[in-house]
Amino acid sequence: MKTRALSLLVLASLFAPAMVRAAANDVKLTRSEDRVRVEIGGQLFTEYIFKGAQKPYLYPIVSADGTALTRNYPMKTDVPGESKDHPHHRSLFFTHGDVNGLDFWAESAGAKQGRIVSDGVESSSKAGVGIIRARNKWVGPDGTVHLTDDTTISLRGAAEGRYIDYEVTLKAPADKAVVFGDTKEGSMAIRLPLWMTPPHSYSDANKKRVQHPGVGTIINDAGTKNTQTWGKRSAWVDYYAPKDGKVYGVAMLDHPSNPQHPTWWHVRDYALFAANPFGKHDFENLKSDPKAGNLTIAAGGRVTFRWRFYFHEGDEKTAKIAERFKAYAAGK
Asked: Going from the N-terminus, what domains does the chain have, and what CATH number goes with each?
């Protein structure tokens, strides 16, 4: 009996760490009227919010140790020390500033302001991955549906960090084409907190310029850093900074199957971080061809884009961002 008990104890000691890791990365999705709450290891990771704004978005994004990795504004307006510029930068979102001449990027009541309206959300979890499937309608100010999308958001945790895979299939109506116009105002985006930024200036609540002595770093796959990454093409970009003795980072990876891969990046030193495959004219300053980056989806046609967000610790070398991109490209 003693031998058997000892054997069981040895087996338990071997399997216990794996069981603890599995429990730490268990994904739970909870659906309510306007959102899907995502927990990893019993702790909030994010919520997919599909009602109450002019587009769906994910907010907040929280690291495994509880550190918030997105700005709170405009979802919360009373957080001390936060910048309050660009109220349309809602945490993590996909949209674009010129779709059939309408603006789905900004949030206003203008004559050209579009809205992305939820048309159904389903959620499930399996094998440590949470999956949110959403259908959306891109609606003009007169109620016309200009296109629809099928969006799949996969969320998971791992020992090295947390991941969000964002896949969106844009579908044109059967009777008309859809044009995604050339503008820097797009597209797959996240707004990071102020403490992650490099040195820069921004407008405060009174629209006064404030100098922020940031210590963050932006870097792309060529090693280009900070403001010089804006408008450049790259397979990935990483944005990281120290906080309370630890370095936190957010990397976005552009899937090789995407049209215009490697994409251009609308990434700013004030914490906007966006992949934009439609902004060629703006990013490359092609004054003679303002439609150079247009993408037309034929009537009844569709196009799919994929991106991966990797929330990690350390800089781009410590987090092995180049290797993570190769794994993503290989379907892992």
From this structure: 19-329 (2.70.98)
HSE-up (13 A, CA, CB side) for residue 171: 11
pTM of the model: 0.92
H/E run at residue 116: strand 115-126
Sequence letter at residue 66? G
Q: Read off the pLDDT of residues 208-255 as tens digits, 9 standing for 90 and up.
A: 888 999 999 999 999 999 999 999 999 999 999 999 999 999 999 999
Question: Pairing mode, if any, of strands 145-158 and 129-139?
Answer: antiparallel
The whole-angstrom separation of Cα 273 and Cα 269 is: 9
Q: Which tokens is 132 given?
A: 């949110």
In the numeric block, the tokens 């003795």 are attached to: 245
What is the amino acid identity at position 149?
D
CA dihedral 269, 202, 52, 59 (to 10 degrees): 40
Residues in the chain: 332
Task: State the chain's maximal CA–CA distance in angstroms.
Answer: 85
The β-bridge partners of 296 are: 179
Q: How far is it, in rounded angstroms, from Cα 72 to Cα 238?
A: 21
Sheet containing 264-267: order of strands: 27-31, 35-40, 43-49, 57-58, 92-96, 186-191, 272-276, 264-267
At 19, is the pLDDT very low, low, confident or very high (cuts 50, 70, 90)?
very low
Closest by alpha carbon to 295, among 88, 38, 99?
99
Give dist(CA 177, CA 147) in Å, integer. Answer: 9
Give the DSSP letter of residue 8: H
Which residues, other chains included, contact 322 with Cβ-Cβ below 8 Å and sequence gap of 6+?
A: 221, 236, 316
Computed from CA positions of residues 60, 61, 67, 69, in that sequence, does the dihedral angle turn out positive or negative?
Answer: negative
Per-residue DSSP letter, 226? G
